[in-house]
Amino acid sequence: MTTPVKSADRTLDILEALATAGPSTLSELTRALDIPKSSLHGILRTMAARGWIEATDTRFRLGLKALRVGAAYLDTDDSVGLLAGILDDLAARFGETTHLGRLDGADITYVAKRESVHPLRLYSAIGRRLPAHATALGKALLAARPADELDALLPDPLPALTPHTITDRIALHAELAAIRSRGYAVDREENTEGIVCVARVVPLRDPATDAISLSIPRTRVSESTVDEIAAALADAVDKASSARRFL
After folding, report:
1. Is 208 found in the same domain as 171?
2. Which end of the chain is more exposed for a tag (fewer CB within 10 A), N or C?
């Protein structure tokens, strides 16, 4: 294993902490990262001078440089470009929020989205990171992994985002087996209360890291709705797979 360079390691820890916790004071960052305040203050000054963070009177937050680098990642990502039109079509057909999510360890990160046309809809943001076991996107991708890899991948205990989140490992394994059998995942208020989400894996890599989903408030969902969305997602995955062959 390569030994990390301490200053670089600390700089990245700061960026990740601000991305996760939001604007933070010097004392909060010192406690969270266990970096001596004198060392931390010097790193923060350098990062602010380079535009990676911004400083107010009492807090530090991510700066415009971080936004530009994040945007560059999305602009150069083949999967985002390939699936952009497919997300557009799904959003236009159903009028609901659609996402492209990517598995990152035990979490799922939104890398693209299309907004619902309805006032009542799921709150989400590109770059938001959630426990994979609590989302349809994440469960679809976890189900695509060998069962013997999952226990090492997932945290213990499994965190609950709502009262409906599956936190029992045996129950989660049973759920993932059912997803493998039917080919799609359903999140019934496991991520956000009042929201149902349906997702399918898009096998652009091996192992698969991406999935697409459609999220709908529970009040607009019936079993036939879930079936219709699952079928539409299957068609979308077929289109993406066909397009991938011509890249």
Report:
1. yes
2. N
Identify the bridge partners of residue 100 per DSSP, sorted by sequence position: 112, 212
Percentage of the chain lying above the pLDDT 90 cut? 66
Residues in the chain, overall count: 247
| φ, ψ for residue 2, nearest 5 deg | -75, 135
Asked if residue 124 and residue 38 are part of one domain, the reply reads no
- Are 103 and 142 within one domain? yes
Q: State the Cα–Cα distance between residues 30 and 188, nearest whole angstrom.
A: 39
Beta strands in the chain (DSSP E): 53-55, 60-62, 97-104, 107-114, 129-131, 185-188, 195-202, 210-217
pTM: 0.84
Tens digits of per-residue pLDDT, 147-159?
Answer: 888 888 999 999 9
Q: For 42-67, how does the pLDDT look when each residue is reduced to its tens digit (9 = 90+)?
A: 999 999 999 999 998 889 999 999 98
C-alpha closest to that of 140 among 90, 74, 187: 187
Rounded Cα distance, 199 and 229, in Å = 9
57 and 84 part of one domain: no
183 and 215 belong to one structural domain: yes
* 83 in the same domain as 64: no
Number of domains present in the structure of the chain: 2
The answer to whether residues 108 and 224 belong to one domain is: yes
For residues 196 and 215, the answer to whether their CB atoms sit within 8 Å is: yes
